[in-house]
């Protein structure tokens, strides 16, 4: 093994995403398997440096997982050449400032989404990274959900004929925090702290739609705050100032119409927490996190609307489950492996800061649409991929 370990500064590892998905399920799983396999057949091992604000929390995680390096001093970490990659899983509002410091220090950067709170800042990050010549990547985990991988396989096989429309339902009830603790952090519900379902979910919808169906050309959205008061982690009531539901219509390149509801104030009467129905001239599919079922046109029933006669047909029974066929790995880990290859041997990684900026642009356009009541066009190539 001639390849030295890749040092990765991991900022925000005490958080939900930082700890579980990025540290446990990705970097430690990669370390456990002996590193990332390169095209040469060699492996590059990863070495994390945990960074955060609370020494005790970092030390506890480091000891629990046999990690040698942790610090509360981000600048010292960035100044140390042993750590080539900076990774950010902090609350969104803390991200831009930290990434700017990492770029200035010449580090390659990988980050959670959204890359910034505003499109202007997201584009600035993309420009700064390009000017500094540092590699940059942003999470695009939804593309790795087993259900969406099956959907991609259907699209690639031509199953749908011409895709006509996409209807997405994402959401579940997030407890208000009073009589039952909330299952998401309270900052998600405060606009002033970078919260809101539009800034949280529209960046995901952007790369999902773009990758599977076509570039988003316009959006109409109604964002609203259904639950206006919640109780935080310390049991204190607070005003929920951020949107907790968004009802969006997206027009895509090529004429596909996508409609996606995103809500933290809806009770689940679906098989999965997210489901996309795709209707095409030759067939339809309903894809969730894990499952995906299809109905080809040759097996499509002919319903007749008649309010006088109860409908005995079991419509659900007419769908076919798409098999898994191949084992699916954790998406966050697969993305990390791609990014490590991108850093070490220049492997492909199209989900860069420009892609992240397009996601932030869609969120900003969605909020603008909601504010003005107008459909907002999204200019192509801003910034160009
Ligand atoms: N890809 C996904 O599916 C997905 C899902 C949820 C969240 N996220 C994104 O991941 C990021 C983290 O979200 P989370 O749910 O893990 O949040 P979290 O609140 O659980 O964790 C946030 C982390 O940031 C740190 N932090 C909190 N306030 C800070 C501050 N003022 N300055 C610096 N650091 C601070 C915390 O200590 C913690 O380590 C967000 O940007 C969010 O948009 C992505």
TrEMBL record:
InterPro entries: Gfo/Idh/MocA-like_OxRdtase_N (IPR000683), GFO_IDH_MocA-like_dom (IPR055170), NAD(P)-bd_dom_sf (IPR036291). One of its GO terms (molecular function) is nucleotide binding. Residues 50-138 form the Gfo/Idh/MocA-like oxidoreductase N-terminal domain. Signal peptide: none annotated. Pfam families: GFO_IDH_MocA, GFO_IDH_MocA_C3. It comes from the Bacteria. Residues 149-285 form the GFO/IDH/MocA-like oxidoreductase domain. This is Predicted dehydrogenase.
